[in-house]
Amino acid sequence: MIEFNNAKEFNYPFPHIIIDKCFDKETLDTLLYEFPNTDSQEEIFGGRKQIPVIKNHINTNNNLEKSKPYQEWIPKALTWKKFYDWLNSDVVFHKILTKYESDLKKWGCVINKSSSLKKDCFLHIDWSVATDGYSREIHRDSDKRIWSFLIFLSDKNWNGGDTLIHSSDNLTKYPRHIWDNSLPVHKTIKSKTNTGVFFLSTPNSYHSVSKQFNTKSSRNFIYGSYSVRNGAAFKK
User: Fold this and answer.
1) Residue 74: helix, strand or coil by DSSP?
2) Domain range for residue 219?
3) Which of 11, 22, 208, 225 could form a disulfide with 148 if both were Cys (CB 3.0 to 4.6 A apart)?
4) Cα–Cα distance between 38 and 95 in angstroms, integer?
């Protein structure tokens, strides 16, 4: 369902692609219409509310229980369910693994061609709405992540709130967070409806979100990832 033929590919500072038109117009219009209301959800990161597929996707302990908000919403969002089911297939999963085979090997990824979403890995998605106060420090995603993505579903109508990609050439170790903002900004990606950023979640895949303020309309987006069920995805 994602129009990967529209992708612009980049290898530095870590493998990532940007797609200006992720979905065809008919699909996009339906996804926007079906986007969930997150008002009743708990706020995180200073100004973000979300509906996650998996109840605790950071620390699954091999328990992939679906969250209650997702279970209540998804039967009414048939196009989003179709999208989730499409990504949640070994056919698409293995296309991603094949595309990044050399990079996965370089970083000592524990996943290979025999790995499956049914027993070794899992897909997570959350539907998010960000308003004033939302930001993310410079970080890489959790050790479980193999491949991650953001798809923006509203045009920028606020200050800040930009997705920043950081280079890390001078690092010899890769901590989860860089709290002192010491990594150079390599690229700034502003929200635009139907634009997606997809990246291999290697140990140097540092990114952040600048603080959002003066919000006139909410920043709607989805975050997703393929992750290993147990342990870390990369050995190096």
Assistant:
1) helix
2) 4-228
3) 225
4) 32
Q: Tokens for 174, please give them.
A: 């890769």
Give the separation between CA 158 and CA 2, rounded to whole angstroms. 27
Q: Is 201 exposed, middle or buried (0-12, 13-18, 19+ CB in 10 A)?
A: buried
Predicted pLDDT at 159 = 97
DSSP E strands in 104-202: the ranges are 121-130, 136-139, 145-152, 163-166, 177-178, 185-189, 196-200
What pTM was estimated for this model as a whole? 0.96
Alpha-carbon gap, residue 46 to 194, rounded angstroms: 25
Q: Which residues pair with 51 in a beta bridge?
A: 127
Task: Report, as an integer, the average pLDDT of 116-136.
Answer: 96
Domain for residue 145, yes or no? yes
Q: What is the CATH number of the domain that holds 223?
A: 2.60.120.620
Q: How many domains does the chain have?
A: 1
Q: Mean pLDDT across the chain, nearest whole number?
A: 95
Residues of the chain by 3-state class (helix, strand, coil), percent to 5: 20, 30, 50
Q: Could you tell me the maximum CA-CA distance found in the chain, to the nearest angstrom?
A: 48
57-71, pLDDT tens digit by residue? 878 877 899 999 999
The first and second tokens of residue 108, run together, are 């000592």
Q: Coil, strand or helix: which one is 101?
A: helix
Give the closest residue to 114 by CA, choosing from 85, 86, 94, 134. Answer: 94
Distances (CA, A) of 59 to 51, 55, 93, 125, 150: 17, 9, 21, 15, 20
Count of positions (residues) in the chain? 236
